[in-house]
TrEMBL record:
GO cellular component annotations of the record: outer membrane-bounded periplasmic space
Sequence segments annotated as region (Disordered): 401-443, 474-501
Biased composition (Basic and acidic residues): 401-429, 474-483
Protein name listed in UniProt: Peptidase S41
Top-level taxon of the source organism: Bacteria
Domain PDZ intervals: 91-173
Coiled coil: none
Length: 501
């Protein structure tokens, strides 16, 4: 066995694959596990036989490198939606995105029934400005039909140089005809943290993606809010449409609101080093050298009432934050059920320029609740608009993705996609309004969920959703005691108790 090295830059991959936005992963230069089982020699001989047949009998010559690269791609992609082989270009783009910049269209996508489905457009991106919405299907890229392409192949066609053009053909549920969307690729810089005083005494703090600088940026923004209003009576932490990002950012944001040294999240996987507990300590969210960034936060932040806004676009790192604050009863979670991206991806380098991003563990909240394929159920279910939640019901969730990883309980989960599709049939009017509605600007005066959060702070009535969360009934009966036990320093509370309705 070779020397083992592990870089403590651990993170989460956002849901699906990303065209122009990479999410995150666990970096590792660890030697590969060998000797655990004998190699399947008969199957390997079949693989070499097929390779030989293609080389000798196929209609035209095929390069060895292409055949082997495609074999690796197919083998890894067969596992789950988040495991993928990264060639030189894909690896470079993913590494750049960790710094909050990338070239592309600004859409997060997944494959559904042979087409590329929009999970969510990134704020202020070419796709967002063009009116592309969650739930839209891409049927053509330029003149190439999507049907028959892999997700990775489709993403490669959407990538390109800054200022280069691409034309997408979009199908939208409820529309009779597809529509053509010409887009220009551009370098997109995601502003990780935003914030403002929305009303005297009430602050709004938005995290759009967890990046390398998120904790430092959050500290600066929180200090700016308290400088503007030192007597904050409530803070809204907005994680809607946050696809995830680096785990240190999620730990740091959670630790900012919790007592020191609390468990934030745990992982469970096949390897011994995949079973870990991550605490709200400096070494888990800050660089190796330098002062603790959270030490610069105002002490009042530990006690200010907090409401966390989430929706189906909230995934991975944002679900870890919401789950931790919910388990400790530190915040009220408001909005709609989250995406359910609760798996760890580890980057295993193959060569200097290529790697495999492999799912290696599942994430669990401090109480041992699995996030995978379930998500976080809000304490207060609130639709995205006063008219209903048509737009949110169009979004894909982890449990809708082909070959998605189970929650680890050993029990089959119910099909949340079917439940949501049933709701869609009953709510055509709300969906029609969602298709024609201009993109919502989070934090604006038209932000319905933010208005409901402020109402709750003030003791005013909150308009709750009529949509029920999608639950695994068997897991609910068993109190979800699957896979891992609650971390010892967490006293299991009765969740959702004491929440004003």
């Amino acid at each position: 066995m070779g020397v083992r090295m592990k870089v403590k830059s651990i993170g989460l991959i956002g849901f699906g694959m990303v065209a122009g936005v990479a999410a995150s992963f666990q970096f590792s230069a660890m030697a590969q596990k060998t000797g655990s089982a004998p190699l399947p020699l008969d199957e390997l001989r079949q693989l070499t036989d097929v390779f030989g047949l293609i080389k000798t009998d196929y209609v035209e010559p095929v390069e060895d490198r292409k055949l082997l690269s495609e074999a690796i791609t197919g083998m890894v992609a067969s596992l789950d939606p988040h495991s993928v082989y990264l060639d030189k270009k894909a690896l470079r783009e993913m590494q750049e995105s960790m710094q909050g910049r990338f070239v592309g269209l600004g859409i997060e996508v997944a494959m559904e029934e042979g087409y590329v489905k929009i999970v969510t457009p990134i704020e202020d991106s070419p796709a967002f400005r063009a009116g592309i919405k969650a739930g839209d299907l891409i049927t053509r890229i330029d003149s190439t039909p999507i049907k028959g392409l892999s997700l990775d192949e489709a993403i490669k066609k959407m990538r390109g140089e800054p200022k280069s053009k691409v034309v997408l053909t979009i199908a939208r549920k409820g529309d009779d005809m597809p529509w053509i969307v010409p887009l220009v690729r551009e370098e997109i810089r995601v502003q990780s943290v935003k914030g403002k005083i929305v009303e005297p005494g009430y602050g709004w703090l938005r995290i759009s993606q967890f990046q390398e600088q998120t904790v430092d940026d959050m500290v600066k923004k929180v200090n700016a809010l308290y400088a503007q209003d030192p007597k904050l009576k409530g803070l809204v932490l907005d994680l809607r449409n946050d696809p995830g990002g680096l785990l240190p950012g999620a730990i740091g944001v959670s630790a900012a609101f919790l007592p020191h040294d609390k468990a934030i999240v745990s992982t469970a996987g096949q390897r011994r080093d995949s079973n870990e507990v991550f605490y709200g300590r400096r070494e888990f969210y800050a660089a190796r050298s330098g002062a603790d960034p959270l030490a610069r936060l105002p002490a009042a932040l530990k006690n200010v009432p907090v409401i966390v806004l989430v929706n189906t676009g909230s995934a991975s790192a944002s679900e870890i934050v919401a789950g931790a604050l919910q388990d400790y009863k530190r915040a009220i979670i408001m909005g709609t059920q989250t995406f359910g991206k609760g798996s760890v991806q580890t980057l295993r380098p193959l060569t200097r320029d290529t790697a495999v991003k492999l799912t290696t563990a599942r994430y669990f909240t401090p109480l041992g609740r699995s996030i995978q394929a379930k998500g976080i159920v809000p304490d207060m279910m609130v639709d995205e608009t006063a008219e209903g939640d048509g737009l949110n019901s169009l979004r894909v969730r982890e449990a809708d993705l082909e070959k998605h990883l189970s929650d680890g309980s050993g029990k089959d989960s119910i099909d949340p996609g079917k439940a949501r599709r049933d709701e869609m049939e009953e709510d055509q009017r709300a969906q029609a309004q969602a298709r024609t509605r201009k993109p919502l600007e989070f934090g604006s005066k038209d932000d319905f969920q933010l208005a409901q959060a402020l109402n709750h702070f003030k003791g005013l009535p909150v308009k709750l959703s009529k949509v029920e969360p999608v639950l695994d009934k068997e897991a609910e009966k068993s109190k979800d005691k699957a896979a891992v036990k609650p971390v010892p320093d967490v006293k299991p509370p009765e969740l959702n108790k004491g929440v004003k309705k």
